[in-house]
Amino acid sequence: MWWEGGRFYWGSKEGREGIVVVFAWLSSQERHLKPYVQLYSTFGWRSLICHADFLTLFFPEKASSLADGVLKELLQELKIRPSPIVFAAFSGGPKGCMYKVLQLINGRCKGLLDLDEYQLVKDCLCGQIYDSSPVDFTSDLGTRFLLHPSVLKRPHPPRVVSWMAKALASGLDTLFISRFEAERADYWQTLYSSVNVGPFLIFCSEDDELAPYQVICNFAQHLQELGGDVKLIKWNSSPHVGHYKFHASDYRAGVFELVGKAAMIYAQRRLQSQGLEGPSISESVCNLHKAAASSSESLRRVATDPSDHFFLPSSMECEDKKDTNLQKGELFHTQNMPSINAHGVLGQILFDICVPKNIEGWDIKPSTSLNGRQTFAVARRHGLFYPMKCIRRSRL
């Protein structure tokens, strides 16, 4: 769909795991982004692709209009099927549109949609991917992009094209030199303000001229200082926006890890919105553990005499096993506890009931249990055993 400042379309609507919003690089075409769409589809993620025009880099109003169009299209899908969202920015894509999307959903600039609709997108945004990005915004940014071999697909640009591009950059520099620094500061501040939306995955190369490694490294380091979850994957030599082509396995593994984290963050947010927060669940588990520990302590207090003891396995064996004594078990002695004296009246009664006076009339025969083990069965030769007779023989 064409919009003021660029165009956007669905690369793929297959998949139910989430949505990747792709902010493509300048002069990119649909066929250039097809491998990335297929990559996201293998993980079950749909793709919404945005292409910004060249002049959108220099006119924030065009970027805001394009961002509103992207958000409107995205909301139509979210209202039908809420899903986690990941922003994937390539090369100059953040300056073309993405930073304006971040400003709109954070309420930093006024858009065409309702605040509740912007908030819905903000709640679903759970991660960001930067491929050969972000690049520093300078007055000759567009010229360097247009003349770069990765964009022209030629080792050297034609002389006419080079002259026209430099003339255009000179004219823009003359007209908007006073605005460039203010927009540049606003651009970087917006990217840093998104540190809390979710994890970051950054792909870069040390020999990339358009996206200098030092700029990207400083960006990643500053995000970490702000508390962000950042993973930086770099190569010594890899072409601009060509990392996936030459390093497919590493690229795929990094994307797989990030979308997995984004899905988990989204699930946690849904639970919190429904009142099922993670800390309350953890607290209930801890309460159960305390109840089990107290039950174990009550079992350990059972003893027949102050001098008696039990050798019981400690419940701490299921913990971190910090104490070697707890790993093997603990020897518990009970003190000042009610006990049964074996020489007392009650002890003598129980002894007379449970222990027969004469065992000559008892047979001990081996038998086999259900599990195959041999046990011993005890029976009397002269009739059944009557406990009442034992009670009559007691000293009472």
UniProtKB/TrEMBL annotation:
Entries under InterPro entries matching the protein: AB_hydrolase_fold, DUF829_TMEM53
Gene3D superfamilies in the record: alpha/beta hydrolase
One Pfam family recorded for the sequence: DUF829
Protein name from the UniProt record: (wild Malaysian banana) hypothetical protein
Natural source organism: Musa acuminata subsp. malaccensis
